[in-house]
Design a protein that fits this description.
By secondary structure, this protein is α+β, with helices and mostly antiparallel strands. Helix content is 44%, strand content 23%. A hairpin with a 7-residue loop joins strand 1 and strand 2.
């Protein structure tokens, strides 16, 4: 196969990886095709090209996939970054009850983490996030 065919195959496989949800499989085969392109340009026989493509793709898949998926999945859940932020009470939050607050321009369900009621207009700190409910403490 010619070098440019390997490059096209590699790009096509990388596009497939981006366009489909999750397995992180086509990425390694796309990278393998791109790695083989210079070998094809240097005149390596077609059987050697296919062997190099197979070996590189499978070896990198087995050796790197787990590490890459773990690295991509790391990080705090998106709501964890809200802890410590200030929210403004929209609907009174009574002890044991639920109210509404505004945080970053978005209304949220809220509960009080302390024993005091949070009145409308009061600024509070987010102590924790439980699903879509913010637990607040008065400042």
């Amino acid at each position: 196969m010619t070098w440019w065919a390997w490059v096209l195959l590699g790009i096509a496989l990388l596009v497939v990886e981006v366009a489909t949800p999750g397995g992180l499989f086509a990425f390694f085969f796309g990278a393998g095709a791109i790695v083989v392109a210079p070998l094809a340009a240097l005149g390596v026989p077609e059987a050697g090209q296919w062997l190099a493509f197979s070996v590189f793709s499978v070896a990198s898949l087995l050796g790197l996939r787990r590490r890459l998926t773990l690295a991509l999945e790391k990080g705090p859940p998106p709501t964890a970054e809200l802890v410590g932020e200030q929210a403004v009470v929209l609907v009174e939050v009574t002890p044991g009850g639920e109210g509404r607050v505004e945080l970053r321009g978005t209304p949220w369900s809220a509960r009080t983490a302390g024993g005091t009621a949070l009145v409308v207009g009061r600024r509070c700190r987010v102590e924790r996030v439980d699903g879509l409910t913010l637990w607040l403490r008065a400042e």
